[in-house]
Amino acid sequence: MSTRPPRLREKAQVLDETALDRALTRIAHEILERNGGAKELAFVGLRTRGVTLAQRLNAKIAGIDGTTVPVGTLDITLYRDDLDMRGAPVIRGTDIPFSIKNKTVVLVDDVLFTGRTIRAALDALIDLGRPKMIQLAILVDRGHRELPIRPDYIGKNLPTSKRETVAVRLREHDGEDRVVIEEPEEA
Amino acid sequence: MGWTRKDLVTMRELDAAEIVLLVDTAASLQEIAGREIKKVPALRGKTIVNLFYENSTRTRTSFEIAGKWLSADVINFSASASSAAKGESFIDTAKNIAAMSPDVVVVRHSSAGAAAILARELTCGVVNAGDGAHEHPTQALLDLLTIREHKGHFEGLSVAIVGDIAHSRVARSNIHAMRKLGMTVTVAGPPTLIPPFVQELGVKVSYRLEDAIRDVDVVMMLRLQQERMTGGLIPSLREYSRYWGLTLDKLRARARPDVLIMHPGPVNRGVELSPEVADGRYSVILDQVSNGVAVRMAVLYLLAGSKGAGA
Question: What pLDDT is recorded for position A1?
C-alpha cells in the first residue's frame, strides 16, 4: 500500500527517568497553581501515551493535594483531517465516563508537533459537552506548528528538525521511562 | 493490520483477523450511541446510497443512521418507487447511480450474487445488505458483536441455529464466520428446511429442537420466511410452532442457565419464539438491533475511509 518507513536510529537522549519524573511533578504543581486547586479539574489523555501521562499527573496531584481527578481517554481517529490520505486507521475508542460540562479539562499528550491532533481533540471534546475551559499539557513541544495552538504546560521545549522523530517511552508501554530523538538511518 | 478490501460482499471470503477487526471497530464506535450529540465527522463529504430491491425497515434504517452519525450524506433508493418499476435493468440502475459518484453503495436484492455483480461493476465500495438466500454479512457481524459482549470471547463457544436454514442468508453468513472464529455450530430444523450437504460447511445437524439447544452457549432462532417458500415445506404454522417454537418450558428443561437467545428479526411472535422467551431474561434481541448500528458504522468507516489509500 505505502512504502515502508525508513529505519530510525537514536540520535540523542532528551529526558532520562529522573528528568521525566521531575517535569511531571512541576506540571502537576503548575496545574494546581493555575487553577487554585483540583476541584473542578478533569484529565483527558490522548491515546495511547497521553492517557498514561494523565494517570501519572493524577497520581502526582493526589500526592500533593489529596484530590483525585477523573481521567478519561480520547481517541481522535474519527476527527482526523487526513483520513483520505492515510486509509482508515484502527479506532480504539473514546472512554470518558464522566460529564465534562462546566469542568476545566486538561488535555494531555506526549508530543506536540503540527497541532493537528490537538485541533481534532478539541473538536472531539466539544462534541461531548461544553467544558468551562480546556487547557493543554504536553511532555515535549518539538515546534513546527501548522495551526495556532499553544500549550499551557510544557515538560520540555525541544527544537527539532522535521526529519527527526521524538519518541516518548513509558514504563507501562515500553518498559522504560525515557525521551529520545530519532533520525532516519542513511540508506 | 488495516482494512484492504473495496467491498464487503460475503463473510466466506474474510479471514478471522478481518472479522475481528470489523467487530473491534464496531465495539469502539458503540459509545457514540450514548452521546448527547450523536455525530462524528469521520465521513464528512462522503455519499452513501442505500439501494434496496427488497423490503427492509431494520437494515435500511440501521445503515441510514450509521451513515448519518458518521456525517455522510445518505440517499435511499427503493426499487419499488423507482426506475426498476419502469423496467430498467439492475446493472443499468447501478451504473446510473455510479455516475453520481457515491463512495459506498449498500445493496439488498432477492437474487444471490447481486452484490457480487455490483462490486465487480462499480469502482466505489459495495456492501451486501442481503442477497437472496446467500449472505448477509452485517447481520453476522452484529450477532458476533452481541455474542462477544455477553460471553467475552469467541473461541470454543457452541451455537445452535434453529429453523428455516434453507432460506436463511443470516445462517450462511454466521456459519462461515463462526467456523473461522473457532466456534461450534449446530443447525436444526425440519428436514425440508435443512439444505442438503449443509455438513460440508463444517456444522452438525439436528432434527430435534430439544437436542439442539442442550448445553449450547447461544441459540439463534430464525424467522420462518414464508415469503420465500413456494409451498409444501411445512404442514402448518401450528405444527411448526409446536415442534420448533422455543418456549420457556423447553428452554428451562434443556438449555444452560446462561444461554443467549438471539433472533435476526422480525420475530413471528408465537411461531418461532414464545413472547415469554422473546422478552425474557435470556433474550438479547434488542442488543442485536443497537449493535447493528455500530457494526454498520464500522463497515462504512472502513470502506469509505480506506478508499483514498486503496485506489
Answer: 47
Q: What is the pTM of this model?
A: 0.91
The answer to whether residue A85 scores a pLDDT higher than 70 is: no
Count CA atoms closer than 13 A to A148's CA, side-chain side.
0
| Lowest mean pLDDT, pick from B85-99, B113-127, B149-163 | B85-99
User: How confident is the model over B52-68, as pLDDT tens digits?
Assistant: 998 888 899 999 999 99
Q: Tell me the domains of chain B and their CATH numbers.
A: 16-134+292-310 (3.40.50.1370), 137-288 (3.40.50.1370)
Which domains are delineated in chain A? 8-82+92-184 (3.40.50.2020)
The phi, psi pair for A5, rounded to 5°, reads -65, 150
Cell of A94: 473514546
Task: Report, as an integer, the average pLDDT of B152-158.
Answer: 97
| Beta carbons of A88 and B306 less than 8 Å apart | yes
Name the grid cell of B94: 447501478
Q: From CA A124, how far away is CA A139, in angstroms rounded? A: 21
Provide CB contacts within 8 A for B292, sequence distance 6+: B58, B59, B62, B138, B139, B142
Q: Which residues of A touch B24 (CB under 8 A)?
A: 90
Chain A residues lying within 8 Å of B31, measured CB to CB: 93-95
B3 part of contact set with chain A, CB < 8 Å: yes
